[in-house]
């Protein structure tokens, strides 16, 4: 594909949104299997399933933090690259993708070492107890040791989607998920590795995804290849600046996960371990909503970034409307499923009636405000895709702030499980502000920026 015939600037917008959003959404559905399958098998370890599940659950913030680092580069380099493609600056696009690759390698080392050194302090901060320690540290140590593959697979897949190759990114994720599903029962049960085997299966699956996506980005099939380029600290700084907003958003999700576990531990009394295990199941269900939704908005960032770079205001606004409509359909379906089949979903992880009832209640409550994400995700990710990071960050911080305040206010008054109402409260309130911004602020910002 040459720099002058990209379908990002010529194909019908509605068709283009579907072509890029659907594979990205499906890729994230498949990507969910990394955590859901791990937890499903771990929950069925004979004689230790519930404790092992809770131990893996307290590691969830670590996985989220590593994802945030990958997002820092993937969501920073990807939009910058697509904007350069829209401006026909292919040399600049090649410098961006190669320096993004350098950053991912460097950050993988910088993240792995301190995480392994301070793992005990980290895990107990996340809500771990002595009962859960053996399971949590086994999963944590193995998963963190493979950080380089987690960062490269996540960051480079996002950059691939920013070139308009959502299908390629989807195949990379599907390969990793297939390997994970195949290896989990072998390592966990056949080789008696338990939670360590679950983490090892995930690391190896991410390594397979990394190899696949690197082969693509270093071949002639990519619109912009990873090539030999000098280290450019100017581009690196710009990549980090643009990626900081989505990275902070994901990192704050990490803080929210930790805060939920902390409040369940503090106010859950003798049931705190059970509540944390149920929260891990609830978080698995929420991933089924938020990751595919993020796939829709991340997969279509290339449309917004490319046409923003090409100063095509009409295509930008039409794409935004199509993205919101697609998100509305998806969120509507997922809301209905959350309210009707949550119990069946929980039974995948545990057969204990008390756990099933509590986790199903958590899912139904936590997902009450899902329709509010129809506006929040497209607005925040769309602004980031066009390089307007301060606006995306502002409205994302609003949602996270409401959530965090609710987490610490509700349990002391209404009990530990009231923490589940923090999510719908923040979703609904932030949707009102994001909706107003989308109607009145976004058109003015796009017109102003595109015509500079």
TrEMBL record:
Query: Keyword annotations for this protein?
Result: Cell membrane, Membrane, Transmembrane, Transmembrane helix, Transport
Topology term for the membrane: Multi-pass membrane protein
Entry GO MF terms: antiporter activity; xenobiotic transmembrane transporter activity
Where is it localised?
A: Cell membrane
Where does this protein chiefly localize? membrane
Q: Name one GO cellular component term.
A: plasma membrane
Q: Which residues cross the membrane?
A: 16-37, 52-75, 96-118, 138-156, 168-191, 197-218, 239-262, 274-298, 319-338, 358-380, 401-422, 428-447
Q: Which NCBIfam families match?
A: matE
Tell me which PANTHER family the record gives. MULTIDRUG EXPORT PROTEIN MEPA, SPORULATION PROTEIN YKVU
The protein depicted here goes by the name MATE family efflux transporter
